[in-house]
Amino acid sequence: MATNGTSRPTTAQKLRAMLEDPGKLIVCPGVYDGYTARIALAEGVDCLYMTGAGTTMSVLGMADLGVATMNDMRDNASMIANIDPDTPLIADADTGYGGAIMVGRTVTQYMLAGVAGMHLEDQVVTKRCGHLSGKQLVSVSEYTSRIRAAVMARAAARGDIVLIARTDALQSLGYDGALQRMRAAVGEGADVAFLEGVQTREQAEQFVRDMAPTPCLFNNVPGGVSPDFSVDEARQVGYRIAIYPALGIEVVYPAVRKAVRQLLTEGKVKGVEVDGKRWSPRELFEVCGLRETMEFDVKAGGTAYSKGV
């Protein structure tokens, strides 16, 4: 409750308000830990996306092959969502991590963690990244059961979270089969439609038309099976949400690899310089709230940082 006695909107309410704006495309940079989230927030983004692949890689050091548990994902999402409780976070929830009861628990846990939106897919529990081949799907009835369980859990929790239904059926069942699943999921109460692995701009435009008025989400994975739409192109297609899950993990890989190679071969890291400048610990800590944390301590009567650092 705000100090003036008025209720502050939840991040789920903020996300819904953005979805209700017909002229808005919600652009979500992919983050996977507190540091990448802080960097994105410092740039003024209005929504974040927690990538499941990035979480699996950063938390477990493993490829995105369905090895992350609900606890792994929820804990990471909770940390990211609460860095700035005013900025909505959309988080990957994979398959919901089990049957209907487990899907319900996942939704409840994500809501308690402060997540504004989450997506559930129709792969088997031993899933894989949506831009890899060989994906296996559950039946339509099992998939709709997942969505139904999510809607029921949301209602029982007396809170809110934007439920995004994702299908990976395009690869094996074709467009018509994928569309059937999306419409069935929306019929059960999903708020947003997410066709994974869309293959062409024409197919994307058809999907947006076929799902109207339900808002649709585009997943931009450079090097994957989908077109590398820019923000403007995604807006022109008619998407309402565009997530960029590889944004952080893609740029970190060559930068860190280059720095390690320089250390091993030249004995000095030079590749991180920008215009001849290196970043001091204090400058890096500033991104992660150093100043605000110190000010909080001083206002509370603490003396540890009263003279600065």
From TrEMBL:
It comes from Pleomassaria siparia CBS 279.74. It catalyses: (2S,3R)-3-hydroxybutane-1,2,3-tricarboxylate = pyruvate + succinate. GO terms for molecular function: methylisocitrate lyase activity. This is Carboxyvinyl-carboxyphosphonate phosphorylmutase. The lineage of its organism: Eukaryota, Fungi, Dikarya, Ascomycota, Pezizomycotina. PANTHER family: PHOSPHOENOLPYRUVATE CARBOXYLASE, PHOSPHOENOLPYRUVATE CARBOXYLASE FAMILY PROTEIN. Gene3D superfamilies: Phosphoenolpyruvate-binding domains (3.20.20.60). Pfam families: PEP_mutase.
